[in-house]
Amino acid sequence: MSESNSIESVLHETRVFPPSAEFATRANVSGMESYKAMVAASEADYSGYWADLARKNIDWKQPFTKVLDESNAPFYKWFEDGLLNVSYNCLDRHLATQSEKTAIIFEGDDGKVTRVSYRELHGRVCQFANGLKSRGIKKGDRVIIYMPMSVEAVVAMQACARIGAIHSVVFGGFSSKSLHERITDAQAVAIITADGQFRGGRAMPLKPAVDEALTMDGCESVHSVIVYRRIGASIELDDDRDIWWHDLFNSQSSVCEPEWVSAEHPLFILYTSGSTGTPKGVQHSSGGYLLGAMTSIQWVFDYKPTDVFWCTADVGWITGHSYVAYGPLALGATQVVFEGVPTYPDAGRFWKMIQDHKVTTFYTAPTAIRSLIKLGGDLPKQYDLSSLRLLGSVGEPINPEAWMWYYNVVGQGRCPIVDTWWQTETGSHMISPLPGATPIKPGSCTLPLPGIQAAIVNEAGDEVHDQHGGFLVIKKPFPSQIRTIWGDPERYKKSYFPEEMKGAYLAGDSAHRDADGYFWIMGRIDDVLNVSGHRLGTMEIESALVANPLVAEAAVVGKPHDIKGEAVVAFVVLKGARPADAAAVKKLAEELRNWVGKEIGPIAKPDEIRFGENLPKTRSGKIMRRLLRAIAKGEEITQDTSTLENPAILEQLKEVVR
Ligand code: WTA
């Protein structure tokens, strides 16, 4: 399936699947009339609507009296004088009623299953929080978490929240350089990591990347590295700086009074790619963030106390924050946490786990769905998936073909699919079906959640209602939104609230609405690629490439990919001459791919590298990216090339080196 085919099929998509009467009757939001009533209530009294939800969902140590403070827009504040603790809301408040309920069913890469009750999880979080305190870590300090998917990763995040430390989780697949960039930007005082991680039957070290990052400049702020033993690798510990998790943990008490913080106290920073420069540290609040995570699980995932919830995202991404580490725990849910990969030991792993743990609610990314179709479209039929009642999709547009397979083969035509549109910056779902209300259409994320005022506007910021679409914006501030970019408030304003948008939040996606008002996401409007649901800045990959001594210049574009959604194509100009023979070119391309893997992380490795003596440029020296995109797709160049300084270069760049 190429992009043009998939866009075609989306544009011609007319199938509609209303919720079954059976699902609708039992749903938290039942029928479109209920949804419309919620929307109307939120519009009639916007801040009152959110305030009621915040009182109902969150246990406040001290109730808030102010709801929304817009006096310093776009630096919005919600529930600011309210005091709470997020970890208290996720753990302590369940102890009286359901302390023995399973909070986490952890399945290791090797299939070993461990169950942790709310009582145990609470104890472990308190114990680890005391350990952090014993290292002098306190409210407001930044702590990097660089860990595999594990109960301990969740414990580490919750323990930071408990003492008011601000965590920044770095995905375990990022390189030491990416890690270093985040440590220095956040000026972290501590790093919580593991000796390594298991993935697909292989043990892979993690701690060496931390050591390497800490040898680079600017990490003087880091005084502690806490190492969880997962793979049993022999690693070096620095006596002054490093300590084993178990050594820190075992001597601590399991009583730890939570640190009561303002609702606006930063809960975490999470770095994500933007269109320019280095990754942005997206800063989230405590109160508003928690509220968004909770309400979306109640509405979109139709949460019931009997559910077994499974979100497959890594805690290194926002999805793993809101729908693994915080949201499900705040609701007292039982959830699955999985260390491994969907294809090990075979492509039936997800389906087997759904069967074994009787998962009711399954949330994953289109890229996983597409790769599992390819590896075994019939495999789900070999497992008992009758426990499932709801399916979710996140991270990128889902093409109708993959949607139909998910619906018919995994969901057996019984489970609604919630295609949830949101971002690192929004903290929780923004546009999504409510499964007991919204009739769903394959490929559309449908309608905004109650209290979210999404719209499509043109370049002047005026709302458009035609089929061509425009920029996706959110008109009013909402509780779970980004508060600022860590250390760079100006960039926050410029990126998300450019003047033309007249105060609305600019999401960075283009979208259109159909006659029913349904939203269809078309893609990014900036230089951000979405590769397997991961955000990558083309600029970041370009800077990684030009940091290589052999490279003079580089331009990176995306190209449609059957499984990953988008693939990375790099156009490279070498400092010296292009190697003459094909084998040498191939070797060099491989070298550069590995270089990018080391600079950023394996997820950013270009799928294709093409060498040219130059890049197509205008006479003023601007790289013509639209031409590069066409070349990458293998399209005939029918575009106007009259402004091109060096047309001969196009022929060279058509040559692919894999
Ligand atoms: C894209 C992930 C279409 C979009 C939660 C957005 C989607 C970016 C969807 C955010 C969806 C996310 N349909 N596109 N359901 N969900 N996207 O910050 O381009 O990693 O801007 O957050 O992913 O990616 P992020």
UniProtKB/TrEMBL annotation:
<dbReference type="InterPro" id="IPR045851">
    <property type="entry name" value="AMP-bd_C_sf"/>
</dbReference>
<feature type="binding site">
    <location>
        <begin position="395"/>
        <end position="397"/>
    </location>
    <ligand>
        <name>ATP</name>
    </ligand>
</feature>
<dbReference type="GO" id="GO:0019427">
    <property type="term" value="P:acetyl-CoA biosynthetic process from acetate"/>
</dbReference>
<comment type="function">
    <text>Catalyzes the conversion of acetate into acetyl-CoA (AcCoA), an essential intermediate at the junction of anabolic and catabolic pathways. AcsA undergoes a two-step reaction. In the first half reaction, AcsA combines acetate with ATP to form acetyl-adenylate (AcAMP) intermediate. In the second half reaction, it can then transfer the acetyl group from AcAMP to the sulfhydryl group of CoA, forming the product AcCoA.</text>
</comment>
<keyword id="KW-0436">Ligase</keyword>
<feature type="binding site">
    <location>
        <begin position="419"/>
        <end position="424"/>
    </location>
    <ligand>
        <name>ATP</name>
    </ligand>
</feature>
<dbReference type="GO" id="GO:0005524">
    <property type="term" value="F:ATP binding"/>
</dbReference>
<dbReference type="InterPro" id="IPR032387">
    <property type="entry name" value="ACAS_N"/>
</dbReference>
<keyword id="KW-0007">Acetylation</keyword>
<keyword id="KW-0547">Nucleotide-binding</keyword>
<dbReference type="GO" id="GO:0016208">
    <property type="term" value="F:AMP binding"/>
</dbReference>
<dbReference type="InterPro" id="IPR025110">
    <property type="entry name" value="AMP-bd_C"/>
</dbReference>
<dbReference type="InterPro" id="IPR020845">
    <property type="entry name" value="AMP-binding_CS"/>
</dbReference>
<feature type="binding site">
    <location>
        <position position="319"/>
    </location>
    <ligand>
        <name>CoA</name>
    </ligand>
</feature>
<dbReference type="GO" id="GO:0046872">
    <property type="term" value="F:metal ion binding"/>
</dbReference>
<keyword id="KW-0067">ATP-binding</keyword>
<feature type="domain" description="AMP-dependent synthetase/ligase">
    <location>
        <begin position="92"/>
        <end position="477"/>
    </location>
</feature>
<feature type="binding site">
    <location>
        <position position="532"/>
    </location>
    <ligand>
        <name>CoA</name>
    </ligand>
</feature>
<feature type="binding site">
    <location>
        <position position="551"/>
    </location>
    <ligand>
        <name>Mg(2+)</name>
    </ligand>
</feature>
<dbReference type="InterPro" id="IPR042099">
    <property type="entry name" value="ANL_N_sf"/>
</dbReference>
<dbReference type="GO" id="GO:0005829">
    <property type="term" value="C:cytosol"/>
</dbReference>
<dbReference type="Pfam" id="PF13193">
    <property type="entry name" value="AMP-binding_C"/>
</dbReference>
<feature type="binding site">
    <location>
        <position position="535"/>
    </location>
    <ligand>
        <name>ATP</name>
    </ligand>
</feature>
<dbReference type="Pfam" id="PF16177">
    <property type="entry name" value="ACAS_N"/>
</dbReference>
<feature type="binding site">
    <location>
        <position position="509"/>
    </location>
    <ligand>
        <name>ATP</name>
    </ligand>
</feature>
<comment type="similarity">
    <text>Belongs to the ATP-dependent AMP-binding enzyme family.</text>
</comment>
<dbReference type="InterPro" id="IPR011904">
    <property type="entry name" value="Ac_CoA_lig"/>
</dbReference>
<feature type="domain" description="AMP-binding enzyme C-terminal">
    <location>
        <begin position="540"/>
        <end position="622"/>
    </location>
</feature>
<dbReference type="InterPro" id="IPR000873">
    <property type="entry name" value="AMP-dep_synth/lig_dom"/>
</dbReference>
<feature type="binding site">
    <location>
        <position position="546"/>
    </location>
    <ligand>
        <name>Mg(2+)</name>
    </ligand>
</feature>
<dbReference type="GO" id="GO:0003987">
    <property type="term" value="F:acetate-CoA ligase activity"/>
</dbReference>
<feature type="domain" description="Acetyl-coenzyme A synthetase N-terminal">
    <location>
        <begin position="35"/>
        <end position="90"/>
    </location>
</feature>
<dbReference type="Pfam" id="PF00501">
    <property type="entry name" value="AMP-binding"/>
</dbReference>
<keyword id="KW-0479">Metal-binding</keyword>
<feature type="binding site">
    <location>
        <position position="524"/>
    </location>
    <ligand>
        <name>ATP</name>
    </ligand>
</feature>
<feature type="binding site">
    <location>
        <begin position="199"/>
        <end position="202"/>
    </location>
    <ligand>
        <name>CoA</name>
    </ligand>
</feature>
<keyword id="KW-0460">Magnesium</keyword>
<protein>
    <recommendedName>
        <fullName>Acetyl-coenzyme A synthetase</fullName>
        <ecNumber>6.2.1.1</ecNumber>
    </recommendedName>
</protein>
<feature type="modified residue" description="N6-acetyllysine">
    <location>
        <position position="622"/>
    </location>
</feature>
